[in-house]
Amino acid sequence: MTSLRTRAVHAGRDDLVDLGLHAVPIDLSTTYPSRDSRDEAARLDEAAIGVQLGARPVYGRLGNPTVSRFEAAVADLEHCASAVAFASGMAALSACLLAAVAAGRRHVVAVRPLYGTTDHLLASGLLGTEVTWSTPEGVGDAVRPGTGLVIVESPANPTMSEVDLDALAGRCGDAALVVDNTFATPVLQRPVEFGARIVLHSATKFLGGHGDVMGGIVACDEEFTRTLRQIRFATGGVLHPLAGYLLLRGLATLPVRVAAASATAAELASRLAAHPSVRRVYRPGFGGPLLSFDVLGDPHAVIGSVRLVSPAVSLGSVDTLIQHPASISHHIMSAEDRRDAGISDQLLRVSVGLEHVDDLWADLDQALAGSLVGRAG
Q: Is CATH 3.80.30.20 the right assignment for the domain spanning 4-253?
């Protein structure tokens, strides 16, 4: 088997030479004409039961050749049979929840911390699910006959806490383990190798990698894929073809970007740990481009003082981003739930990009120094 770095460049593109193409074509058609109505009817019947229609999907809501390339590439990198792309990460998660409800298994076990909107969606029951919150060790006791999914992020957003996925999978019984792999990416972790059935990504983040495209994707086995395609067929949360093209292009540089940003993040974490304005630094054990830290001073002053680092929600871009989870990504959670999830009001999350480490450090250092001065005053 070729290396992940090589597959990231070539996945979803294997047929281009035979087509006489170098760049991936963008198919922007919303409809696909045919003079054979009987054949169209047959293909619609197939789409309604979740069959992948390939190059002639009848209508853009049922599939798109450019998006299909992106789906094939992510399935390859995640070592899954197939994948289904959606308009956003939350649309992808929603499809998984709807699939569980449709199967009569509306109970979900979830391990905090999770992305704030994921937490809100589960807690609200908006899609008909019922959630039990659990520690990783308590999942076995929380699972019951009607449990459809066990949901976890590892590393978690925004605390970077990690879960032993292999051990967790053993506690799920016949419930499907869903792992949000947005933070790790398939470069650092492939959850199906540890027993997960479903791998979820906010493709907006590292898979795209440039902060200019939104999407979500679920990689899994073919059986669950068919259900997800049925849901997308009926609900219409499709990924735009241009987004599919940009996401596929982003995958080609994913391993290189993750490696470079991870090296910078390791150095920043070391410097932050020694900074007088920082109480504690959080970083996944296997590294990666993300880190969080608790400040002793005013976190809002840090956000307001950075000049090179972008004070913005989201992550995974080529530029470095910083945000205050309690105010932005996890603000929709109650203060009590944030505390229970280990998300303090002093916590800042950094998604490290591709800038030079010394330039990033100079900016963070001056912003942190100012936060202490403001507190003292």
A: no
